[in-house]
Amino acid sequence: MRKGEGGRGNAEGGKGQGDDGDNGAAAARLPSSFRLPPSSAQAASASLGFSDYAGVFLMFARNSLIRDMTFRANFIIETISSLSWAVMNLGFYALVYNLMEHAGGRTIAGWTQHQFFVFIATTILVNSLVEALFMENAEELSELTRTGGLDFVLLKPMDPQFLVSVKKISWASLGKVLLAVALLAYSLPRIEGLQLSLLQLVLYPLYIVLGTLILYSIMIALAATSIWLGRNQSLYDFWFYLTNFSRYPMEIYSGRFGAPLRHAFTFVVPILVVINVPAAILAKPMTANNPDKLLLGAFAVAAAVGSLVISRWVFTRALMSYRSASS
Amino acid sequence: MAVIEIRSLKKSYRVYQKQEGLAASLKSLFHRQYRDVHAVRGIDLDVHKGEFVAFLGPNGAGKTTTLKLLSGVITPTSGTAHVLGFVPWERENQYRRRFALVMGQKNQLWWDLPAQESFQLHQKIYCIEPGAFQRTKDELVDLLGVGALLGRPVRELSLGERMKMELIAALLHSPEVLFLDEPTIGLDVVAQHNIQKFLKHYQQLRGITILLTSHYMKDVAALCKRVVIIAGGRIVHDGSLAAVIDRFSDYKVLTLQFADEQMPADLARFGEVLEVAAPRARIQVDRTEISRVLSAILSNYAIHDVSVEDPPLEEVIASVFAMSASPAQPGDAQAEHAADVAASAAK
Question: Which residues of B touch A147 (CB under 8 A)?
């Protein structure tokens, strides 16, 4: 969880500084004498660092928690409903494996039951991070556009994508993180012949963060289309259809119909690496001489960076067409 | 040099022309008609440090659009503007730390939280040094008298109280330029007066530059020496409030109190009779006729009291709006109004 925050803040912090660089260039175009000197109160440094963004993020998180605590009943209901959804999902797969064992099978697409539980735990983990950090904010973006509330975001001396993306943290969704950890603790020792190495324990959270960032990028890029399309029109709902595909092992996408899907969802919209890579890192034995797996791991890093860059581009372009709403 | 410098600033929107009826709607799925709406049609304006300028105009005249352009929220179609030496729509952080925009119809405070939580957030976002933050906040809270309300969720505040909190939030980073878009809209007389008093005091205290739009002439009369009237996306007047009356109103209002119930029956020959309630009468008299009419009345009737006043500001402004909307471009005012409507509908 903390890793997720740090990674997110870091990425944005870096971008904020990049912006300032651009602004510096723009400022240089004007003769310096033309600039009115800032008043003493504004003498604060012009460029924002990681700590500034982290400070704002923590304030968002704090205010969200205060808000969530105000509506206690709602908070409890949300926690329970999101937990029970995860538990029911889990029960369904337990049932499937149970049925399979009766029929004499042991694995689905190479995943044993406990390995697959690790896969599900990873799904829950990534999804709860996305829900907690970004989902409410992406949903609100079209509302902000419609009502002109985006005006206030654009007035602030900070990166607008950062301000829009993490304004509200949904703490209720974090309850599922505990469930995921419990599920990992239950399943991992039950996987036959699995010896966890330090490398696996380091890589797993790293790829959780990368997967979260990929899902975030797709989400914010789709939500940002509401700025273009206006009113309540947005491609945001598309995110849910798309990410459905990420919830299954990529091995099931095979054959005449499966293979093209697998390629599209790996290389075009890289949602298949989101869960698959971290889950495989933890649940399957790490073998150095598996070039495919290494390549996929390297690709996942590139996919996360690429997704962020593209989402940034889409968001920035969308902002340019912002027209604000009448007062 | 000027704090705000605007040169031939234009903003037009392309809006989808909606037709009535289902058939037309279906047709518009495939073939859409657009038209350009010119919200701001070329504005030139200089505002100097420490000025408190009122922006007046009918709905859809382009006031808010201009403020949004100067805040960098939207980008102009053509023309230039500099505020504090910055081009607003480049949205430089350095610029955004030095101005504020307050919109009376929108709120930026967290609805479910006490205002003080939003203030702290602003401290972080604007990187305000803790000591300065505390001082400024205390000062503003004190001036507006909202100390007891700081811990109450914003949704539980009255409109006037909320507006005060919005003002505090906007002023925490001590902006040098302040854009106020109808800050007193919907407020009762007392709340309006409080906000006016505060703005006047704060502006004098800090010497900041303020651009205000308002539909309340009381706001304008109380606060602004300089008035810019904008209609149909153009500036039609720029000067003092008194000059507006001199320029746009050609009559004065004469109030007479007759002695001994002796009222002349044919008051109408002096001018348009506005009100008769014996022994008092109000007559609208052509400005050039005023001395002749006055001496005629005073020499022919016994008068207890007399006063000569300018017509109410609201009326003058209304006639300016009406004048600027009609002759040159018929339908302009409607088109501008449509611009605002369309801009919001398009969202």
Answer: 106, 347
pLDDT, one tens digit per residue, over A188-197 is 999 988 888 8
When divided into structural domains, chain A yields a total of: 1
The yes/no answer to whether this complex scores an ipTM above 0.85 is no
Contact state of B68 with A324 under an 8 Å Cβ cutoff: yes
What is the token pair recorded at B206?
């800090």
CA-closest candidate to residue B340, choices A57, A325, A133: A325
Cα torsion angle, A137, A140, A145, A151, sign: negative
Closest residue in B to A21 (Cα–Cα): B92
In this predicted model, what pLDDT tens digit does every residue of B88-105 receive, in sequence order?
999 999 999 999 999 998
pLDDT per residue as tens digits for the range B269-322? 888 888 888 788 889 898 888 889 989 888 888 888 999 988 888 888 888 887
Same domain assignment for residues B154 and B24: no
Which H/E stretch holds residue B14?
A: strand B4-16
Cα distances from B166 to residues A164, A259, B120, B153, B162, in angstroms, run 20, 56, 13, 13, 6
Structural domain contains residue A43: no
Q: With H, G, I as helix, E, B as strand and everything else as coil, classify residue A80.
A: helix
Range of the domain at B164: 107-174
The packing angle between helices B130-144 and B115-125, to 10°, is 140
